[in-house]
Amino acid sequence: MSPGFLSGLNEQQLEAVTLPHQSALILAGAGSGKTRVLTTRVAWLIETRQASPQGLVAVTFTNKAAKEMLTRISAMLPINTRGMWVGTFHGLANRMLRTHHRDANLPQLFQILDTQDQLSLIKRLLKNLNIDEARFPPRQVQWFVTANKEEGRRAPQVEAQDEFTRRMADLYAAYDEQCQREGVVDFAELLLRSYELLSRNDALRAHYGARFRHILVDEFQDTNRLQYRWLRLLAVTPPAHGAAPPLKGGESNAIFAVGDDDQCVAEGTLVVMADGTQKLIERVKPGDQVLSAFGAGDFRVATVRQTYRRTRHDALISIHTRNGRRLTTTPEHTHFAGYVPKATPQAFYTYLMFKRGIGYRLGTTQVYTRGQARPMLGFKQRALHEHADALWVVSVHARENDARVDETILSLRYGLPTLPFTPRKGRSMNGLVHDTALIRKVFDSVDTEASAQRLLADWGLDKNEPHHLPQSRNSNRRNITVVLCGDRRGIKPWHRVSIYGNDTAGRRALEAAGLSVRPAKKGSRSWRFETCRNDFGELMRTATKAKQVLDGTLILKANLNGKSLPFVRAASIRPGMVLVDGSGRFDVVERVGRAAARSRRVYDLDVHPTHNFIANGLVTHNSIYAFRGASAANMQDLQRDFAIERVIKLEQNYRSHGHILDAANALIGHNRRRLGKNLWTAEVKGEPLRVYDAATDAEEAGFIVEEAKALRAEGVALADIAVLYRSNAQSRVLEHALFTAGMPYRVYGGLRFFERQEVKHALAYLRLVANPDDDGALTRIINFPTRGIGNRSLEQLQEAAQSRGVSLWAAVRANTIGGKTGASITAFVKLIEAMRNATAGLPLPEVIEHVIETSGLKAHYQAEKEGADRLENLSELINAAATFVAERDVQPAGEAAGTDEPDELTAFLAHAALEAGEHQAQAGADALQLMTAHSAKGLEFHSVFISGLEEGLFPHENSLTEADGIEEERRLMYVALTRARRRLYLSFAQSRMLHGQTRYGIASRFFHEIPDALMRRVGSRFKVQGSGFKVPGSESRAEGPRISTLNFERGTLNAQPATQWRVGQGVVHPTFGAGVIVNAEGRGPDARVQVNFRDGGLKWLMLEYAKLAPA
Questions:
Q1: What is the band of 231 on the pLDDT scale with cuts at 50, 70, 90?
Q2: From CA 516, how far away is CA 520, in angstroms rounded?
Q3: Which residues pair with 555 in a beta bridge?
Q4: Residue 862 and residue 758: Cα distance in Å, rounded?
Q5: What DSSP string runs through 985-1037?
Q6: Strand pairing partners for 25?
Q7: Read out DSSP for 797-821?
Q8: Is 60 exceeded by the pLDDT of residue 246?
Q9: Residue 937 · residue 447 · CB < 8 Å
Q10: How many C-beta atoms surround the C-beta of residue 684 within 10 A?
C-alpha cells in the first residue's frame, strides 16, 4: 500500500519521487510542482527506509525554501526534522565548519563578514601595509580574493604572470592571515573552507559519504563550479586506502538534482532535417540530424542531443516576415535578429535612450539619415553623438509624424523627457536644446529611472537587453563580445569572445584573472583579449569571468551568413529587423504579434555543436540550458559523471487586473475638506483589490513574497512591484522574508535593515561581546558614541597590534596611552567586559536590549533631533532577535544541531551577516521595491502591496488625536492606492512585533471605507471575527473595525457583549466622562482600549475592570 502523500502526483512526478537508488536530473519549470517533488522524494526515502532523516542532505538556494521543505516533511511524516541537513550551500557549509571547526582550523565562535565588513577589513589591511589604494583599489582586491576563492584557489595557487598579479596574490595571502587572526570568514570562504576540509580529510569525507546516501539539490542550474565540486565530494565515497581517486574510482551516492530550463517554439513548427526534408518539431528525437548554420553562410549537418517539451498556458509571440514565414515561440525564446544597413527598409523609430549619470529620454529617428557617406542607422548615430550607453527601439512606424505622435504620447504617459542629453549644434544658440545647464536641470528634476522601468515592462522589453550598446575601449564602458560560430577552423564551428581596451587597469584585471592579454596590433598601446572555443558553454564561462572582472556588459551575437546578428528575445523583436533564412539570406520582420493565450505544447532542441536549427524556414537559437555561466556545464557534467541515462521532465500547469481608482475615490470621499474631483480611466475595470488577513506580520510578509514570485512568473519585472508601509520599522520583517526567499530587493530612498548605521553599530558591539578579537567591530565602535578616542590614538593602537602580531583588542587591553585618551580606552575595555559578564546566560533579545542600553547607543539617538527612526530600528533589532530565536528550532541553514550548536548570539550574528550579504540588488539589477507610503509619491508600479493596514499603524495612532489627522492619513492612503496600475493588494495582521513589543491589531477603518464589491479576500488561513469589513468570502459585517477581533473571553464588568465595542465608538466613563475609543490591544482578560476623553485626555483602560458604557 503506497503512502497517502503520493496521492495527487501526476505520472512524471510520481516517477521522479519513486526512483530507485540512482542519480537523476529532473527538469522543471515554474508551477510544475518541483518543490513538491523534491519534498515528497525526501518523505518517500524516509518512509520506505531507504534513508533516515539524518541520512540525507538537501540543498536549496534560499532559507525559505529549506524551511518550507521541513514544514512539508513534518506534515507528511511523524518525525522530528530538527537534525536534518536541509539548507543553502552557505548555510550547510557554515554548519559543517562549526561542527568540525578544529579540523577546519577555525575558532568555534568564528564570525561571518558581510561584503561591507570585508571591504572595511581590506581597507585596514592596505593601510597597515602602506599600500597605495590608487594602485590597488580595495574593491578590486576584494573581487580578486572572492573570484579566486570561488574558483577554489588559495593565494599560493594563483598563477602570477606579472608583478601586479603577484602583488595581488600577496595581498590575498595577507588578507587570509588577517581573517585567520581575527577569527572571521567571508561568504566565499565558507564554501571553500568546507570544500578543502572534505578534500584533504578522507576520513571525514568517508564519514559524510557513508551518512548521506542521498543528496537532493534544488535549482541545480544555478550552481557554480565550486558548488558542483563540493557536491561531488559528498557524493563519491573514497576507497579505504590512499588518496581520493577520480570519480569513477569511488562508490557513488545518489544525486537527485532538480533544475529549470528555458523556453521553446510552438508545436507544429517545421524543422529542416539533414536531408532537406521537414519534420514537425514534436516528432524530432535525440540522435536525429538537422541542418544547422556553421557560420558565414555555411549550412551543414548537426546532431540533436536532447529534445524538450513543456505545456504553456500564456500568450506566445508570432513573428511574421516579408517572405511569408511565420514563427511562433515563447516570449523568452532567443532568436538571431537585428537591424542591418541596406537590408533593413526605411522606417521611423520611437526609441528610449539611456546615459549614465543623466537618465533616460525618448526620441525619434529614421533608419537611414541624410548626409552620411554610407548608410548608418539613425539611432546608432544619435547614440554616438550624445555619448549614450544604451538604446531600446520602442515602436516602428512607416511615417515620421506617426513616430512623433507616439513619442509625445509616451512622454506624457510615462513622464519622460524628449530633450537631448547633449546640446544640439546649429545656427541658433538660444534655444533650450542648446543650453547644457537647462537640459541638466530638466533631467535632475525628473525620476526617469522608475518611468523607464515602467515603459520597458509595458512594451515587453528588458532593461538588461537593449537593442543597441555603443562600443568603447575605455573603463567607462566595457563590452565583452561573444560570437556564436564566429570563427572557422576546419570542419568544426568555433565560437569567439573578444574584448578591446586602452587602459592599464583593465589589462591588469584580466591578467590577474588568468586571461592572456596582448597588444591590439603591433606597436599599439591598446590591448585585446580574444579566444575561441569549440564548446560554447566553456566559452561562456570565460566570458562571464571577464564580465565579472571588468564589471562589463556581455554582448551575444551569431555569425550566420557573414553578418553578425544579436541574440534577441522574441518579446524584444521589432519590425524592420532581419533574420536569416534557411538559405543564408536575410528575411525582414514585417509584423510581431501575440498569439492568443491557450494551453499548448512548446518544444526545444539541444543541437550540437552549433546551437541553432531552422524552424519554419528561419534560423533560431536552441535555448536549452541557456548557457548561464557554469550551469550548462554542470548539467552536462552531472549527466556524464553520474551516468544519468534518462532525464525526467515535469510539465508546467498554471496562472492568472483593478477597481483601483474606484476604491481610491470612495476612500477619499470620506474626507470633508476635499474638492469634488474623481480620477477616471479609459482602462477596463480589471480585477478587485486583493485583501489578505494574516495571523502575524511574518505570515503577512510570507504571503507578499509568494505573490511577488507569482507575478514574476507571469512576466512582471520585480522593479515594477512595490511594497508600501506606513512606518520605516516595518521593513525589517519584510526584508527577512525576501532574504529567505532569495528575492532581490531595494529599499527606495533608504538602506536595508541590517545595513542601517544604527543597526551596524549595535551589531558591532554584539560582535565584540561574542569575539573580542574582531578588529573590524572594535574599530567601528571604539569611539561611537564619542568617548574621546581619536583617529591618531586608534592608529597607535593598530601599530602596536601590528608590531606585536596580536589582535587590536589585545593592544587595547595593554594600552600604554596616557591622559584622558588612555582613561577613555580603559573605560571602553571595562564597558565591553561588563557587557559580556552582564549578558552571560540572558535570552538573546535581552542581550541585545542590554547592549543597546549600556553602550550609549539609545541615549545617543534619543538626543539626536532626527533620532526617532533610528530608535525604532534598534527596537526592531530586538524583534529580529526574538523572531530568530522563535524560528531557530526549525531553521535549516546556518546552524548546527545537537551538541555542536553555537550559542544564540553567535548564530544570530551569522544570520545577520548572511542576510545583509546575500541577494543584494546591484545598481541596474531587477529588484522588488520597498518604501514608505510617503516615499511612493510620484511613482507608479504594475503591482503594489500595501501592508500593515491596522488601526494605530495605518492610520497612525498619532493621527487619532490631531486635528485633521485622520484626513491626512486618508490622503496618504489615497496616494498609496493610486501607485498601482494593474494589481493592488491590501493586507493586515492580527499581531505584529513593532517597537520592541507585540501589538494586537484590528483591521484599519480604510477597509470599511472601500465598497465591498471592489475587494476580494485571498488566501486567508483563519477566520477573522468581526474584522470590520466584509468582502466576498468573509463571514460577517460590522459597522467599523470591531475589537471583537481580540477574542474577548470574559467581557466587561457590566457584562456587555464584546462585539459592542469598536474603534471610533463613543463611550462614557463614570469618572472621566465622555470619550471615543481610538485604539485597542490584548486578548481576553488582558484586553484594553485607549479612549480619548473630552476632558481627561488619552487613557488606557482594562476592559475587564473599566465601567465603560456606550455613549
A1: very high
A2: 12
A3: 481
A4: 12
A5: EEEEEEEEEETTEEEE--B-HHHHHS-GGGEEE----S--TT-S---TT----
A6: 257, 647
A7: HHHHHHHHT--HHHHHHT----HHH
A8: no
A9: no
A10: 8
Amino acid in the structure at residue 137: P
Distances (CA, A) of 935 to 665, 716, 931, 972: 21, 22, 6, 10
What single DSSP character describes residue 465? S
Is 847 in contact with 909 (CB distance < 8 Å)? Answer: no
Contact 86, 159 (CB under 8 A): no
pLDDT tens per residue across span 283-299: 999 899 999 999 988 99
Nearest alpha carbon to residue 533 among 611, 642, 623, 631 = 611
Residue 570 C-alpha cell reads as 522574441
The secondary structure element, H or E, covering residue 578 is: strand 578-580
pLDDT band (50, 70, 90) for residue 676: very low
Q: Whole-structure pTM over 0.85, yes or no?
A: no
Query: Helix (H, G, I), strand (E, B), or coil: what is residue 159?
Result: coil
Cell of 217: 539539490
- Pick the residue with more confidence: 1039 or 118? 118
The values of phi and psi at residue 500, to 5°, are -120, 150
Task: Report how far residue 855's alpha carbon sits from residue 850's, in angstroms, rounded to the nearest whole number.
Answer: 8
Average pLDDT for 593-609: 80
* CA–CA dist 1030, 1010 (Å, integer): 10
Residue 685 has pLDDT above 80, yes or no: no
pLDDT score, position 654: 28
How far from 19 is each of 40, 85, 651, CA to CA, in Å? 12, 21, 18
- Model confidence over 797-815: pLDDT tens digits? 888 888 888 888 988 988 8
Query: What mean pLDDT comes out for the span 61-81?
Result: 79
Angle between helix axes 138-150 and 504-512 (nearest 10 degrees) is: 30
What count of residues does the chain have? 1111
Cell numbers 529567505 correspond to: 740
Q: Could you report the per-residue pLDDT of 466-483, keeping only the tens digit for each?
A: 999 887 655 567 889 999
Among residues 272, 279, 277, which one has the least CA distance to residue 302? 272
863, 869, 872, 876 alpha-carbon torsion, rounded to 10°: -130
Q: What are phi and psi of 394, to 5 degrees?
A: -85, -50
DSSP3 helix / strand / coil % (the chain, rounded to 5): 40, 25, 40
C-alpha to C-alpha distance for 838 and 829, rounded to whole angstroms: 14
- The Cβ of residue 459 has, within 10 Å, a number of other Cβ atoms equal to 16
Chain-centre distance for alpha carbon 423: 38
Nearest residue to 43 (alpha-carbon basis) of 65, 66, 69: 69
What is the crossing angle of helices 89-99 and 225-235, to 10°? Answer: 50
Any idea what DSSP says for residue 436?
A: H
DSSP line for 1034-1097? -----SS-BGGGG--SS--TT---GGG-BTT-EEEETTTEEEEEEEEE--GGG-EEEEEETTTE
Sign of the CA dihedral 713, 715, 720, 726?
negative
> Grid coordinates in use for 975?
496616494
Cα 370 off chain centre by: 46
Of 173 and 224, the one with more pLDDT: 173
Residues 980 and 941: beta-carbon distance below 8 Å: yes
Cα 924 to Cα 908: distance, rounded to the nearest angstrom: 31
Stretch 731-753: mean pLDDT? 79
Residue that the C-alpha cell 533631467 belongs to: 443
Is-contact 186 119, C-beta < 8 A?
no
CA dihedral 553, 556, 559, 564 (to 10 degrees): -60
Strands, E, within 147-252: which ranges? 184-185, 214-217, 236-237, 251-252
> How far is 38 from 390, CA to CA, in rounded Å?
41
